[in-house]
Design goal:
This protein has 559 residues and is of the alpha/beta class. It has 19 helices and 23 strands.
């Protein structure tokens, strides 16, 4: 029904060009000569006009030509497809930018075998003066031969502290020199927020480091000095790279600190992509200086910027890839269920404080146990109300059927990291969960059946940026590693997948009234594609070239 209404509304806007001109000056930009999709599922239009950074009208070429003035710029699409810009509602912008700028990439894409990985680590050590940190990122334990160890890294160097951050963002491995440099004693216990250290069969620290409070003890030492100039360059480069993939908006959940808000907003107008963020629970008071701008269901828009705030983030558990997501049933062939970073009482307290602050909550939940205690906390604080905005369960990787139904009842929406299926589907099936549980990974199909909106995200740098790869996997459920299909009954249609990276994603960051679809009065965030997604084989969707991205009526990439 929503598709039909949108299509009818788009056509009605320009039923009479003279009516559209009443009280309106000429268009700044007119697009024509291709296929224009106002919102996935709606009837295509032939032309679109922009004025003052907003959509002025859509319709036939003859009708839109009536909005042309002497200063109007006409963009000939040349048969290309124009549609709403892609929104990544869970993308760690600053973290990704700094990691890509400052740390050595030892990821699977560059070093797909254990031998190549270890050779690269040796090469980095060889060019690093003794005593200096060797800091690396993007290591994938599932695709690069299993967990690293203190012993293995000691074999690389005993004179350099080594820190290797896993691509999931929740774990790392360090060597003995790093443990010494960070003053980590052998008898260290659990840290606040779930931070802890792995141990071998003899109870000795094995080099594995879990969760933020433990990771920071090394990251603050291992990272090179970050200056404002370096941060600006890193963020600018990163946002240009995601704009080149079709993103016109990215939301950073919990990794943008409140003291960065003002400078980030000031920079945002120069960025290649619209930016948005939620603060971490520990930084809840950081929203207070911006309350006068309005908080709650609609994003808090910073004046004279392309930056907004929405919600508060809680990290509920770890990563399924390292079996630290908290489950109600053990991981395959183990007695371990992982562990939540907070117990049920702590979760209720935190969520209640966020509700009292008038804000929605976003809770990272990879395991179904964490989803249980998070939904309990949301129900206790919010009931089913969305007055403060849409409450979200981030990742919802192992959500059960009953939890999808409960989300629907509570008006809570999931956001899926569909790259779990794309990259780890085979490992989830064979090593971590078994076939039955793996088949319900990232259950977008169950959401469609329940009538529950969902979004898709990359969690960059925890998986590669790129919205069309998410769309392709949501439609095919294909694992790229072995070509197998994981849970085919959880596949969705192309319309549904595209909505999950456009209008539904925009709504989940409080911007559904401003972006996510091409409607009269909305801001002109759009992407131009070289090929039509509806005429492309589903498994080839990620190969579609992005021609241009426009944000608020300004071309930011391409052309």
């Amino acid at each position: 029904m929503a598709y039909s209404v949108a299509a009818a509304g788009a056509a009605a806007v320009v039923s009479d060009a003279r009516a559209a001109l009443l009280g309106e000056a000429g268009a700044d930009v007119i697009f024509k000569g291709g296929k224009i999709i106002p919102v996935p599922g709606a009837a295509a239009q032939k032309a679109l006009a922009i004025k003052d950074g907003r959509i002025l009208a859509l319709g036939s070429e003859s009708a839109i030509d009536g909005l042309k003035s002497k200063s109007t710029r006409v963009v000939d699409l040349g048969g290309r497809v124009l549609m709403p810009g892609f929104v990544d509602p869970h993308n760690h912008t600053v973290l990704a930018a700094l990691i890509f700028e400052l740390l050595n990439d030892v990821g699977y894409a560059k070093f797909p075998t254990r031998g190549k990985l270890l050779n690269e680590l040796r090469a980095i050590v060889a060019r690093t003066p003794p005593g200096q940190w060797v800091a690396c990122s993007n290591f994938d334990n599932l695709l690069q031969g299993g967990d690293l160890s203190r012993e293995e890294l000691d074999g690389i160097s005993t004179s350099h502290p080594i820190f290797v951050w896993y691509t999931n963002g929740h774990d790392a491995c360090v060597n003995s020199a790093a443990l010494k440099a960070a003053n980590i004693p052998e008898n260290i216990g659990m840290l606040p927020g779930g931070g802890h250290f792995g141990r071998d069969e003899k109870g000795r620290l094995n080099g594995l480091v879990y969760e933020e409070s433990a990771l920071l003890k090394f990251a603050l030492l291992a990272f090179p000095k970050i200056t404002p100039q370096l941060a600006t360059k890193a963020v600018g480069d990163y946002l240009r790279s995601v704009a080149a993939l079709g993103n016109t908006a990215v939301h950073e959940p919990g990794t943008l600190r409140s003291e960065w808000i003002a400078p980030f907003a000031k920079y945002s107008g120069r960025a290649a992509c619209r930016t948005s963020a939620s603060l971490a629970y520990e930084d809840l008071k950081g929203i207070d200086p911006y309350r006068s701008l309005g908080v709650g269901a609609k994003a808090t828009q910073l004046p004279n910027s392309l930056f907004s705030l929405y919600g508060i983030k809680i990290i509920g558990d770890g990563s399924n890839q390292t079996e630290t997501g908290a489950q109600t049933s053990p991981y395959l062939d183990t007695d371990s269920k992982g562990s939540a970073n907070y117990d049920a009482a702590q979760m209720r307290k935190m969520v209640a404080e966020i509700k009292a602050a008038g804000l929605p909550v976003l809770i990272h939940c990879n395991g179904d146990h964490t989803i249980d205690i998070s939904l309990d906390a949301i129900e206790a604080a919010y009931g089913g109300s969305t007055a403060n905005g849409v409450n979200r369960i981030e990742h919802s990787t192992m959500a059960r059927p009953d939890q999808i139904e409960r989300m629907k009842k509570l008006n809570v929406q999931p956001s899926f990291l569909m790259n779990h299926v794309r990259l780890y589907g085979a490992a989830y099936r064979d090593l971590i969960f078994g076939p039955e549980r793996a088949a319900f990974t990232d259950p977008a199909g169950a959401c469609v059946k329940a009538g529950l909106p969902f979004s898709l995200h990359t969690d960059s740098p925890c998986s590669p940026p790129g919205p069309l790869a998410l769309v392709s996997t949501a439609v095919t459920r294909r694992c790229d590693i072995d070509g197998s299909t994981i849970g085919p009954d959880q596949a969705v249609t192309l319309d549904q997948a595209l909505r999950a990276v456009t209008i539904d994603a925009a709504s989940q960051i409080g911007l559904g009234d401003r972006i996510g679809s091409l409607e009269k009065g909305k801001e002109a965030d759009l992407v131009i594609l070289e090929a039509d997604p509806y005429k492309t084989k589903p498994e080839k969707l990620s190969d579609i070239k992005v021609s241009e991205t426009w944000v608020a009526g300004e071309r930011k990439y391409g052309g």
